[in-house]
Amino acid sequence: TRILWTFSSAYRIFKQPEYLAIAKRAFDYINTYFIDKKYGGVYWELDYKGNPVNPKKQSYAQGFALYGFSEYYRATGDILALEKAKELFLLIENHTFDKEKGGYLEAFTQDWKLIEDMRLSAKDANEKKTMNTHLHILEPYSNLFRVWKDKALEDSLRNLIIIFTDKILNNETYHLNLFFDEDWNSKSEIISYGHDIEASWLLFEAAEVLGDKSVLEKIKVLSLKIADASLEGMLADGSLIYEKEKSHIDTDKHWWVQAENVVGLLYAHKNSGNKMYLENATNCWNFIQDQIIDKTNGEWVWSRKIDGSINTLEDKAGFWKCPYHNARMCMEAISVLADSEFVLNN
Length: 346
Known about the structure:
Blueprint: H1 2-14, H2 17-34, E1 45-46, E2 52-54, E3 57-58, H3 59-76, H4 79-95, E4 107-108, E5 129-130, H5 131-147, H6 151-168, E6 179-180, E7 190-192, H7 193-210, H8 213-230, E8 243-245, E9 248-250, E10 253-254, H9 255-272, H10 275-292, E11 303-304, H11 325-338, H12 340-345
Antiparallel strand pairs: 1-2, 3-4, 5-6, 7-8, 8-9, 10-11
Helix pairs in contact: 1-2, 1-3, 2-3, 3-4, 3-5, 5-6, 5-7, 6-7, 7-8, 7-9, 8-9, 9-10, 9-11
């Protein structure tokens, strides 16, 4: 689904036929193999023949499928893609939304019953609600609302923004809390700098797409505060470290964190006019070019360790690393930097 989103977006912007070919292949493959024809939604994992090997329904995955389908529709006008996106929106709302306490529950069995192990990955806490899943339902809902001005979708998008400001955001530190029980009690003290800076611009994008001026003005202020909080993790070389939990600091410089840092800082500059953000974005982009992009073998390395060595234990491409964060960074940067107001002010 991330491949579908990335190449659909790239085709929409650049009109290169090879991008459309990859997007169409991903679209066809998801429709043929990943969609559960009996219970709806997308499976979590298939084998190489397309057979489900982990048929659980992770809410996060439903969000990314919706993101991919809505972008494919934006790029191609294929009505089937829009219908699939609409189906996923209704499915997410009907099966994963907590109608009593708000927000979206994390994971389910194939037939949409609550599952014992809800974790997205081995490093996550086994809690019923997470910041990460809510963030990746926010972005596809924003994208779908660009092309489908449905009242129920509008209400859900507005509600998601409120969940971030009232439940997920720590309004004292302006970091995001990561894991919650069903009653929205925070169950973690981890600070994820990459998610902070990513949320800062995705929240602004959501408010901008929603089109409510009062919401947008509120989020514009909060977006800058979240971006400022993330800068606690920025190093002198322009990079952003991974996370902090109490006194323990994970100083790895992950590829996706650097990508989101550039985008978030460009949005912060756009929304404030403060050139400090632009300078930091430039420094991070220079770090990416020098340390993260593999100019010999292509793509980006997973991360650089604090001593400057490459993290070779993680995949360059695999289950958790594919075109998405880095390609989106490039496309968002092109959009922001091409803005006439930006050019005039810089």
